[in-house]
Recover the amino acids of this structure.
């Protein structure tokens, strides 16, 4: 039996034009597709005769176990993530599941990068992450809030541009407000902030505001919040962080 293969595929923000060519190739080469049920419709145009396995939220481990099971049968499988597979997505969990099942070396693995949410949102805003920047998830499902608070505090001290993933949900409505309060210890009240909902997808919404005026009520799980550093500025409809060139 031939050795199976798992592609950990990042499909980007969700629109066809923002997928990578390698992601398209990997999905078309696969005999099986495993993914979160909300993401599968985003690649329906690539589904022909592949066997599709749709799983719900909070079943990330089960998705990886399914992909591994199929690959151990000699099949080629695409494990689907939105954005980039290696950024708050499925690639890391996949490697952990393979290790736990003593399957390292028993299947081939390829991580297929994609356009991540922070890059997509930044493009819609202009050029806000041109200088040193960090990504922080406000989800405390897997990371204690005390650790997230520390990350926010240190990023604020370090004057990094900050991309906030998972800024708000029904279960944690106050996390973004709390994050804003932490960052205001280190940032000016008029620090530029970009809010992008559904970045590079249908229904995209882009808003530029300030840290003090950040409208937390408008933010949801499909939102990226980009907080500028001390040099970030608003240029018309764009948010720009200078790289430091002498002009």
């Amino acid at each position: 039996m031939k050795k199976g293969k798992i592609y950990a595929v990042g499909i980007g923000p969700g629109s066809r034009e923002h997928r990578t060519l390698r992601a398209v190739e990997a999905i078309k080469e696969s005999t099986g597709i495993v993914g979160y049920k909300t993401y599968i419709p985003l690649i329906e145009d690539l589904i022909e005769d592949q066997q599709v396995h749709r799983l719900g939220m909070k079943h990330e481990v089960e998705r990886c176990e399914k992909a591994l099971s199929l690959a151990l049968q000699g099949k080629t499988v695409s494990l689907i993530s939105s954005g980039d597979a290696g950024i708050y997505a499925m690639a890391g969990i996949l490697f952990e599941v393979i290790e736990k099942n003593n399957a390292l070396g028993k299947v081939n693995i390829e991580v297929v990068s994609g356009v991540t949410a922070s890059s997509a949102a930044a493009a819609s805003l202009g050029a806000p992450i041109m200088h040193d920047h960090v990504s922080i998830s406000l989800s405390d499902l897997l990371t204690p809030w005390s650790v997230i608070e520390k990350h926010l505090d240190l990023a604020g001290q370090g004057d990094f541009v900050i991309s906030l993933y998972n800024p708000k949900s029904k279960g944690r409505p106050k996390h973004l407000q709390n994050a804003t309060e932490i960052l205001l210890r280190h940032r000016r009240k008029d620090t530029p902030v970009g809010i992008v909902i559904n970045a590079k997808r249908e229904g995209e919404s882009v808003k530029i505001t300030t840290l003090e005026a950040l409208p937390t009520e408008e933010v949801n799980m499909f939102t990226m919040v980009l907080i500028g550093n001390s040099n970030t500025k608003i240029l018309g409809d764009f948010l720009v962080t200078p790289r430091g060139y002498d002009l």
In short: The mean pLDDT is 96.
